[in-house]
Each structure stands twice: as C-alpha cells, then as structure tokens.
Amino acid sequence: MATPAPADPAAAAAAKHRVGLRRLRLPSGRAAVIGVPYVWLLAFFLLPFAVVVKIAVSQMGTVQPEDLLTWADGQLTLRLTFGHFGLIFTDPLYVGTYLRSVQYAALTTVLCLLIGYPFAYFMARARAAVQPVLLMLVMLPFWTSFLLRTYAWKGLLTANGWAHDVIVGSGLDHVLAALGLIATPGQLMNTPFSLVLGMTYTYLPFMVLPLYGNLAKMDLRLLEAAQDLGATPWVAFWRVTVPLSKAGIIAGSMLVFIPCIGEFVIPELLGGPETMMIGRVIWDELFANNDWPMASAVAGLMILLIIVPIALFQKYQAQAQEQRR
Amino acid sequence: MSTGAPAAERGFLRIEDVVKEFDGYRAVDHVSLEIAKGEIFALLGSSGCGKSTLLRLVAGFETPCSGRIVLAGQDLGGLPPYQRPLNMMFQSYALFPHLTVADNIAFGLKRAGMPAAQVAERVDAMLRLVQLSKFAQRKPHQLSGGQQQRVALARSLARQPQLLLLDEPLGALDKKLREQTQIELVNIIEQVGVTCMMVTHDQEEAMTMASRIAVMSEGRLLQVGSPGEIYETPSSRFVADFIGNVNLMDGRLEVDEHDHCIVACADCRHYVGHGITGSEGMPVSVAIRPEKIHVSRQPPADTQFNAVRGRVREKSYFGSFTVYHLVLDSGATLKVSQSNVQRHRDDELTWGDEAWAHWSRSAHVVLTQ
User: What is the ipTM of this complex?
Assistant: First the structure.
C-alpha cells in the first residue's frame, strides 16, 4: 500500500476486549488448572517415553536390559546401542510391518472418510429436531464393550455367520479376492478384509463426529451464493462444502489414522498371519523374544511415525485459526 | 415518477400474481409487479413482511406456489438458481472464506466456462470498478466491512447479469459508512447499467438509492411509486406511518368536491386541496407531515380551516430543526417540525406555551384506508 495503514482497528478493539475480559476472569488458579494435566502427561507419558528410549539404546541382558551407565574399576562407562534402530531399517520384517500398518491404517481412514462424509453431511443437513437422535445413534456403539463388538464380527464373518453368508451368497467375496483383500473366495476371517472391516467399523464414529461438527457449522448461504453464481449443487459441494470442511476431514482422518497404526486388539482378533501390524511386533519382541530394547525401538519409532502427521495437523489448525480471526 | 422507458421495457422483470406459502403461512400474497430495464427498484418493509421471500423467489431459491416470474421475456419458472441470468448480492455478503478476493469474483466466471485468460481480465476489470485491485490476493476476512461489501458487489456483477438482486445491501455497515456507500453503490450500478431489485427495511436507503419503491406489509404490496410519490401521497395509513413521520387525524368526510374536500376532526376542520371518491359522512384519516405545519403564538388569519390550538408539551432541538409536540384540546398530540433558519428567535416557543398550528390546503392528504 502507498500509505502506511493505521494499526488495524479491529485488532485494537479485540485487544481492548481481552483486557476487559481479564478483569472478569476468576482471580487465580489458572496456572493450576492448566498445570495439573500437563504434570500428569509429563509424569505418565513423557517420563515413560524417556524410559522406553533409554531401553531402546541399551543392550539386553539375560533377564532385563543392562544399565546404560556402569561403574567399574573406578571408571564410568556409558554404553549406547543403536543397533536396534539399525535392525528395524534392515530387517524386512520390521520395515514390512511398518508399511503394512501404515497401509491398513490409511485404507481404514479412506474407507471411514468415504462412509463417514456422506453420513456426517446428511446428519448435519437433517432437521434440527432429529439431529440429536442421529448423533446419539453414532455414539450408541460406545455403550457396549469394544472387545465384545470386535468379537461379534468374528461370529459374523466365520463360515455360517450372517455377514459371511450374505457376502459369499452375493458373490462379493470374488470381488474381494480379486482386490487381494482375501486369499480365497469363501474365506473371510483372518484376512486383510476382516481386519480393515473391523477397524473401519470401530473407528467410523471418530470420523463422523468431527466432520459433523464442522459441517453443521457451515453457513448454508455460501451454497446459495455458489448456486447463484452458476454452480450446480454438485459443483457447489466440491468447490465450497468440501474445501470448507477441510479441517473436519483432517481432524477425523487423524483420529482414525493414528490409533489404527498402533492397533493391537483388532488385528489380534480379526486379522490373520499376513496382516501383522506394529502392535503385534512389539508384543512378540517383548513377550515372546524377551527382547526389551528391540520392542522399545519399534515402539519409539512408531511414535515418531505418528508425531509427524500430528505436527502437520497442528500446523494446519494454527493456520486455520489465524484465518478465522 | 415515470422512468420514460418504452412500453416493451417497462416489464423487463414481470412478477405476475405470485403466491408463496410456508406451512399455511402466506409469506407472499398475490404480488404483481413490473420493473423496467435499468431501474433501481426497492422492496421496502419491516422484517417478516415477505420482501426477502419475494427476492428469493426471483433468485430461484424458493418456488412460487402460483404465479409467474418473467425476466426479459423468459419465464424463470422451473429454472434452478444456477441457470437464471441474474445474480444476487447476499445479506452480509456470503463471500467464500476459503477463496481470495480474486477467486471469489472469478467463481461465477469459471462456472460459466470462461477461458482462464478472459477470467483474469474480467476479474481485473471488476476489481478496478470497485477499487480493490490492491486486495486481489487477500482473503475476505482480511478486509473491512465496506471492502467486503464491494467484493460482494463485484462478484455479483462479474457475470454481467441481466438483473441484480440486492438483499439488504448496506445492512451490515455502520451508519456513517452506509451513507457514503449508498452513493457509491448507486454510481457503480448506474455505470454498469444493470437493472436492480433491492430489499431493505431502511426507508432512507430505499429513498436515496431507488428510482421506485414498493412498500410491502404482510406479504402484500401496499403502494408502488417513486420516493416522492410514496412520501407525499401515501395511499394508506400504513404507508404514511411507515415512511417518515406523520400526524394522522381521524374524522368524517363532510364535503367532497372534485377540487377539494372538507374533513371534520375532533380538533379542527380540514380543507384539503384535492377531491377523493368517497361518500359524505364516511370515516377518513388526514395525514400531515410535521414539516408541513407552521407554529406561531398568534392565531392565523383563518382559524376556520386547517388550524388548531395546543400547548407545547415536548420540544426537541435537532440542530437544523426543532420538533414540537403540541397537545390539542382532544388530548391528541400533533408533531410539528420547524427548520431553524435563524439562529435566534425572540418569540421562540417553549414548554407549556400556548400555540397555534396551521397548514396550507396542499399540505395534507386524505386517506380512506
């Protein structure tokens, strides 16, 4: 601009407003309220994580990992072992499992999005009176045990189970076999299909809820504006609704993708030998092989794998916040 | 005021006996209207009077229960909003928050399948028109209210619509900015030469911007005319009361000749310089605008007609004019506004003073409804 703009009056007003609000705020205890959960997380996430990292760089003794620091002959020795991390990248077992975990988590996320988006969309556009009912129906599965529900799928998918009969009866199993999701037609359990089905079923509400929250807030006049400007409802959906629900899509995808990577119970119950995921590898290293450092290294790397998308998400959220202001 | 347009262009937009009901509630009740090409037409009414519904019917967001809407000879019935050759500037603008100013303006052009180079050219032209070229890459939330309003205008004009619909175009702006923007908006609309139908609840906005106004209430059009006609010759008590300030006096028609009539009220007898078509003795109302009444301490020359005596109960000084509230013998209040052409007056009226109010025979109108 040619002339220097005066300080944004809106920002100044907002600042004044904040100062005004501060006077209305409860006198103290703000630090404590924020502090308690932080201390909690520090004590029960960060410290254990440090312990895990410590074990990951130790050597395994006969019963438990050796100490990093040893004091012998008047000499302090620090022994760090990075071989476990090296092994993860060289041994195809680990690399393969990581990739598989990401792949199944990604597939689950995409399926949840494909099923969840229309669901959330029509829920958000339903009459205001029925929305709470629909919302409760989404949360209804949480009223029964997750383990029970996962187990139920076992019964549904094994031979003579309802779902099995419907899928095999309709010939859908041949399609699944062609897609490589099951090994042979007729065999649904303990396959990538049953695993992804179980994870999609379990995590669908985590996709629907943030999407619903986002879509319900949308200003519907924007769609009218789009139509007024010559966009068919379909174009308006892709050009306006979808871009504006980006934050909801990202939030939902994170909530599905992140826990799916580390998922242990569903692969255990519904997966098969070829669907081994990271959770299972950690379990095996720890309990079958009694190799604590290896288990810790795999677990540590998994967290790193998850932190990257979270960090990206945070960055996006911050930007979106900035925009809304 | 006639727009002087040839007959064929008078009915550029024709709304023919349109009815719209929502769950048994009649929002638009047999409305018929013609708008000429190039005209700026305002639908004026308080909230809930059906004016916005009428606008949305024209835009295609609502479907009429009966009646037709014809634009430039084309029946719009059955056309979805995205196929109508018109554009709307929405109340509080409805700018796309995820798109830049330029992309907002380009949105409609791209939907029309315009080649990219041409889109860029047109967007530039629109930005220049509303003087926002510097802000092309900003997001809507980075603009002030007035700037957002101009983006909304540019966006709705970009497709060169045959008809521009404005829904409370200045409603989201504060008063000071509104006055300035009114003129700016009219200038741009006239520069583009687009026919314009606006909806507003603000009579001042309608008066300054529109060449013709339709006053709406409860889904019906009460009166259609130029701002002057609506103000000076309201057709009903509602219109007289809705537009500006007015004194309404109830009375009976005593004499009705072709060039004058006489109405007897509780406080005075009115000699009105126009005839009406009514039967003698029928109940009528007389409407007089406060600024058309004179006050003085002395009785006027003729106290038989068009003069009342009262006592000053309220006096409000507004700078350029002063408003007196006179209590008449019947207990009714008469509002009188006097422009302060002199700085001081020796015989200035004040609270409790006795005063005469009088007016000319062309100052008032007789209303039968």
Answer: 0.83
